[in-house]
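so my prof wants the structure for this chain in the tokens format not the other one, which i didnt know existed until like an hour ago. anyway here's the sequence
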Amino acid sequence: MLDPVIQNSTPADNRKLLAVAIASLAILHLVEFALHGRVPERIGPGEVKINISGLILLVSNYVVFLFTFKKALKDSPQVRLIYLLVFGCLIVFFAEIICQTVRLGLEQAGIGETGGLRGALVSILGQPLCSLMVSVPLAIELRYKNKLLATLIFFAIGFLAWYLFIHLGLLEDLRSLL
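here's what i got, hopefully its the right format
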């Protein structure tokens, strides 16, 4: 017979939690899509302007991850960090599949322009990777209860993103490939 400590070390079955998180995030992303064109695209003083669409996606990912990770850790406190990160990527991946399917369906019906199949595929594959910028610091904070380390990682990721995309112009290089 297995030792009770080893027997209980496997993560709880989180399929229901995964389904609820996917549905929640898909709804939030569809709300962002519905707001597109109805709210200003960018706001802010001077040259530094914040992309409203990106901010909504970032905040919605953060909120869904916060509740999902807390629930997963409550159900199984010994869950590993990599489990939380993969769980977060799966949430975003499947939510994006739902959103992009709806967007492509609306485009086929003549309602709106979404960027076509290429844009949908880039979003389906790119959003889970981008969501790691939010999920890594949050998972570290919740799993290890180390807010300082999580904050340092968050700022390091932010600085790295700024350096790659703004300073080195990687964003323009990516746009030229698409």
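also thought this was worth mentioning. The chain has two domains: 4-145, 147-178.
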